[in-house]
Amino acid sequence: MVLELCIIFFFIALVYSSAGFGGGSSYLALMALWGVGFQLMKSTALLCNIVVVLGGVYHFWKNGHLPMKKALQLSLVSVPLAFVGSYLPMKQATFFLILGIALTVAALLMCIRFFFQKTYTIREQPRGLYGIIGGAIGFLSGMTGIGGGIYLAPVLRLGQYDTAKNIAGLSSFFILVNSISGLLGQAAKGAIIVEWSFTLPLIIAVIAGGQIGARLSAAALKPRWVEAATALLILYAGGRMLLSHQ
């Protein structure tokens, strides 16, 4: 089981990191389908998220695609709310229902942008609005056990917040800080469960995939087609999660 998951996690990290994501949504969906324990998969998904986007943040920043002022604006409220969302007690059935709905909505937003947003010009943004949006997404990310970039990126793209690659960089940073905050929330309630014989090979696989994906995004891949592939992946993950946990 671990070897199969390592191979799949490698390719998920490669594709997701090229769009600035960590892949936590698909890690959770796959581990749920493989019957991994509820708390073990939440902790494992957050750890995999962190190691993937850590490299992504560096590469996006190095290539000038991480505007720090905007990154801090989006994350200032989200980080404490991600901690709160992660700390709240939640039944397994409720968790999968919320995650499945959130992923499906995020995928549909990405599809709407892909098919209907024909022109793209960066707009002047209302001051403070995206800080509030970031806070709400941070809380949701804490509840669902992922970094939140998969929710944030479609909103930023539809709002024409920044360039495609800058949004990928912003999403990486957002996922990193909120995944750390979510992991701390789990630690605060004593819910972190890690089995290193299971978790460590997966971490190594996503580090390798994430490094390749981050470099491809900065150098070669077309963001539009990366987004399309990512939308299909998370739509599949969200749909399978809802169908598997009715």
TrEMBL record:
Keyword match Cell membrane: yes
Annotated membrane topology: Multi-pass membrane protein
Residue ranges crossing the lipid bilayer per the database entry: 43-60, 72-89, 95-116, 128-154, 166-185, 192-213, 225-243
Pfam family, one: TauE
Signal peptide: none
Source domain of life: Bacteria
Record keywords: Cell membrane, Membrane, Transmembrane, Transmembrane helix
Predominant place of localization: membrane
Family that this chain belongs to: Belongs to the 4-toluene sulfonate uptake permease (TSUP) (TC 2.A.102) family.
Name of the molecule in the record: Probable membrane transporter protein
Organism for this UniProt entry: Chitinophaga niabensis
